[in-house]
Amino acid sequence: MDFAEPENWSAIRAEAEAFVAEHVTDDMIREELATGDGVSRPLLRALGQRGWIAATWPVAEGGAGLDGFEASIIAATIRLAGGPTIGQGTTMLPANAIRALASEPLKQRILPSVAAGETLICLGYTEPEGGSDVFACRTKAVADGDSWVINGQKMFTTFAHLADFCFLLTRTDPESHGPRGLTMFLVPMDTPGIERQAVRTMGYERTNIVFYKDVRVSDFYRVGDVNDGLRVMRVALEAEQNIAPASKTTQLFNTALAWAQTPDRSGRRMIDSPAVRERLARFAIDAEVAELLGHRVAFIEQIGGKPGPHAALFGPESYVAWAAAVIDMVGPAAMIAWSDDEAVSGGSFEYHFRSAVASTIYGGSSEVLRSLIAEQRLGLPRSRPRTTQA
Amino acid sequence: MDFAEPENWSAIRAEAEAFVAEHVTDDMIREELATGDGVSRPLLRALGQRGWIAATWPVAEGGAGLDGFEASIIAATIRLAGGPTIGQGTTMLPANAIRALASEPLKQRILPSVAAGETLICLGYTEPEGGSDVFACRTKAVADGDSWVINGQKMFTTFAHLADFCFLLTRTDPESHGPRGLTMFLVPMDTPGIERQAVRTMGYERTNIVFYKDVRVSDFYRVGDVNDGLRVMRVALEAEQNIAPASKTTQLFNTALAWAQTPDRSGRRMIDSPAVRERLARFAIDAEVAELLGHRVAFIEQIGGKPGPHAALFGPESYVAWAAAVIDMVGPAAMIAWSDDEAVSGGSFEYHFRSAVASTIYGGSSEVLRSLIAEQRLGLPRSRPRTTQA
Amino acid sequence: MNLDLSAEQMAVRELFADLFANESTPERIRAAEPLGYDPALWAQLIGTGALGIAVPEGLGGAGAGLLELVLLAEEAGRRLASIPIAEVLASVRLLAEFEARDLLEESMSGAKLVSLATGTASLADQILADGAVADYVIALDGERLVVLARPAVVRHLTNAGSLPMARWHDATEVTELAVGSRARQSFDVACDEVRILRSALLVGLSFEAIEIGAAYARVRRAFGLPIGGYQAVAHPLADAIVATDGAQLLTWKACWAAASRHATAPSLASMAFIFAGQTACFAAQHSLHIHGGYGFMAEYDIQLYFRRSKAWQTIFADPQLELHGLADRRFGPVLADMAGDVS
Amino acid sequence: MNLDLSAEQMAVRELFADLFANESTPERIRAAEPLGYDPALWAQLIGTGALGIAVPEGLGGAGAGLLELVLLAEEAGRRLASIPIAEVLASVRLLAEFEARDLLEESMSGAKLVSLATGTASLADQILADGAVADYVIALDGERLVVLARPAVVRHLTNAGSLPMARWHDATEVTELAVGSRARQSFDVACDEVRILRSALLVGLSFEAIEIGAAYARVRRAFGLPIGGYQAVAHPLADAIVATDGAQLLTWKACWAAASRHATAPSLASMAFIFAGQTACFAAQHSLHIHGGYGFMAEYDIQLYFRRSKAWQTIFADPQLELHGLADRRFGPVLADMAGDVS
User: Fold this and answer.
1) Using CA atoms, how far apart are residues C36 and C19, in angstroms rounded to an integer?
2) Who contacts C310 (Cβ-Cβ below 8 Å, separation ≥6)?
3) Can you tell me the distance from the alpha carbon of C306 to that of A212, in angstroms, rounded to the nearest whole number?
4) Which residues of A touch C230 (CB under 8 A)?
5) What was the ipTM of the complex prediction?
6) What is the C-alpha separation between C318 and D170, in angstroms, rounded?
7) Do residue C298 and residue A131 have CB atoms under 8 angstroms apart?
8) Cα–Cα dist B315/B310, whole Å
9) Are D267 and D326 spatial neighbours (Cβ–Cβ below 8 Å)?
């Protein structure tokens, strides 16, 4: 039993901090806050040069041969500094699925460029009527000679306006329902017939609705077999579920503690107030538990096990609760936006308050996770809804 | 808008307190704690003489012509003093159904005696496999000439060992399932074939499993029509749901506040401790809200409306939460039982800790209430389980 | 006991329900962001005579009471009206109390916007709820209750709750309303009216947040069923509606106690404020959550409710500190220092 | 980082898992009520050499560490073992630290039961967790760490958690273990070991309470379906198991930090105690609740878990006060009195 941080973690964190000092500039941070794009091309290229885009891939494939947790430390370090990470993180989900299941020519066309930080892939799963049910897919792909013609609409396609490709789930068997009869494509985003509509979110993040009208894609860009999109999705979704979520609860806690320990103009420290102390103590516990559950994911993966969705429930749930509670504690100044000079702690509290709520929705809602845990861990009958029948 | 306690409430409370001082003796309280029977025959007779058993019935029928809330103030006053009230409260549910739906001869045989405090009726609804689904009834009644032969088993029949009758739900149509094909009987508890098995509970309360083996009951004791038990049940259940639950949250709060304000041997008052103050302040809010929701039930009933299950959710839920939280606040001495001289506040905290949890189960679980509220108030689709099909 | 509104009160409620439903539409609310102030709506409110509702007739008001203002605030909350409510309505009653006729007249007529600084720290250290749009604020300055004029430079603090909040540096004193214990007493009563009116705003907000969530849960289908049929969606909504009913009763009772000068009035005002805030935040957060990714989209209304639920409470006080204030009111002051027992 | 147990530790866990599964059956637990002490089980535990596990070999122990005791406590908690655990195991390590050989020998052999008074008030004002069954307690008496002998008259305080708790009036001092800062330091370390061991007990309790609830929810049918298929039943169980995993990790980390004299050790001990208690109480209460009326029946085991979940935490400390203790440990002492800002 050893809870000491592994030396390789501290080493990679130090490397990442040095990288951040060099590459994550103040301008980049402000641009990211202003646009909510989640993407910076210069940063991506710099990461690519270090092999840190596809950090877990072998060096020969353009990666850095790191383990999953080392890779997540790099991402967390960039995020902590305010640098954009969504583009890279999202791209790697389909990239890993492509690496596992795509044709050799497609792999060779895409993967080196992904690893180099030159290619961005966005996700086209969810549809207006679908919600958490990604298999309620109505976007159709119809074979036409050696290519496919795609028609449909996808919601929540973050950085669709900047991406090179979209990893697009389509229905290729018109008679099918639910998870069968689907096929996955990697659609070049400069193909005619694609229209993007910007969607602003509460959390400073920009996302898009993407319309596909008679979009013609070569069969070359098919990922996995025809009507076997379920398998491709599974590989990509699994990669998502097993990412140890570097705890944002801890990030927020550290910010709140620093706020409380910093004397104000009159020399008063809020940490000396019983009402603040008590909450920060409770917050410290939740942050520690969120970290530990995340570390366990890393450890179980390291020894080749399957960690399950535990950390993905506690971390985001505690993060959401504290993002709201911290506003009470810090007071109205906590609500001042980063763009205002008088913002407290650089506007962090306002930012977290706005964006935290998404963390219990994205990547599987907390309700689905609870049902999964009840089934897988406790052997309870299915309490998740059944996949669409109609 | 007027939140002042109505004068008739203070008046009836004063009367009830005088009654309690005379009739609820220390011996009676200790016997109730020791046996958990929920019944004292002398107390019942004394109540009967005042017309306070069936307090809402007209004086001509042996009642006192009170409104529902006046009646519940009497019960709350007795309960607050530690006197047994379960026998009376339970008896009135079937008594009201009998008054509404039974034959004239049966009414004349039973109701005056109920009002006089001479007759106790226990409830035979739930069966071992049923749980909250009272209509999963397997106890059979088969017609034989002018009488019925009953076979089956009922759970949680409180004071079955003391009652004169059981209000028994039976299945009379052997082909039926669920809520149809049921008939209600008022079974004299001295009928041969009835066996009681005592069940001790965590909350000092005694209940019983009752076995019915070839129990022969005259058709005279049938309540409502054959195979119309559903209607009879509804009348009795409705009476139960609409009882404004005199808030136990407030009762517990008052005890906790008195504890905190009483100086200990060294003159220290716990109310001066910030950690105690803060919790009692929060507790005071919950108690006030529980009271107000209860008062609203009374008010809506008074103006002839249907109050719905609101108060039945918040009151018990807050009571359960605080019954546990108070132990933390008061410390280990709070766990000492009433039977021990060193018990704090007469063992109230220990008693509430043991018994509160039942309040979110009895009389419709909180889960069923939440589903009902979501459906009736918010127009959501049914999230309650369907009544048994098989 | 009578928990019903009178016919006149029902009419007041209906009047403001209509006004805010028609004039504080989601489009208008969005158009008023980020400042959180809709001058046209303000003019419309002034036009109804709203600011004089609870001002004695002899001073040009309608002579009604705090409850009518509570009903107004509930409806304003329901539609997230982008105008000052709580501090302004409390201020107008302070001006009436001290018969500051000129300011009162200017306030009721809408010529000047007079708000309240509810903190006890020096004015420069407070963030004023209506600071970016007020012309005057009433503030407690030590032992004196004074009216201060807006400084030349006031900068709106852009914030998550779209509150027109700002700090006032170097405000000039215009007049003194009271000194000594009278000043403090009147200020405390005004702050309790703010508590009650903020509770009412939050109650209205909470009811509508729940309705938005329920409306979505009734029609939105996932996995072949309306999501409202899942207990994880439905049950927290049920808890929220019950708590909101409770918060409304508590607010009304606090209002009744204040109007009838009941000894429990200060406690009830604190209770209402704490409970309504907690309830509204819970309701808005759950309603947003059940929207899935849509709840997060700027174009869905629920995010407006979510952001204001927190802002409308936090701008007045930290609910945890309010709990200690409630303890003082309800249980009396601390008689012996037991803070040492805490650690 | 290595979150696995060693082969030896696995063996220790298995040994105690078997012992308590076989010997602390629901029948035995009930037979030991209301005192909450099963002398036969105690003798069996002594027989395994359990009390010497974490005592140096030179003093007759096995030379293992706190983690082995944590594993023992988890398994004891899982089966609600009706014997003293936390305070006794911490005491034996105190006796070893001060090489109080006679008492240590008596304790390890089971000849005498030596427990710990974890409070800092005078002994007569404390309720001792094992008071009804202990022969000696180690206590902090001002600046001195002393061993006191059981008074002639000790009365068990009948309680909801079936703890063998009692007060000791007029206990006689037998020996002094240490004075001054050394006394306080060792006492504090021992109390942190109690925190960690109580966390472990509560973690074991919580795991089993969840399993009892889940087992019931898998088979119990209501309205035609196993109740575990309803989200209102299943989801809180999922929250509980995740929190219990977290509590176990926290307890193990606190144990590791204590063993490796890490600076975070005291904070982690407080955290583990608070979080494990809260988790166990939540788990047991929900598991009981989903049993419906059956959970309330004395013959169902879940009520045993429910009653002890609260007792096992509250006998050591109020978790709210522990939070302030944690704040002192984690954030350093309060430097300025801001209690006034509270009201």
Assistant:
1) 18
2) A324, A327, A328, A335, A353, C160, C161, C281
3) 33
4) 367, 385
5) 0.96
6) 48
7) no
8) 9
9) yes
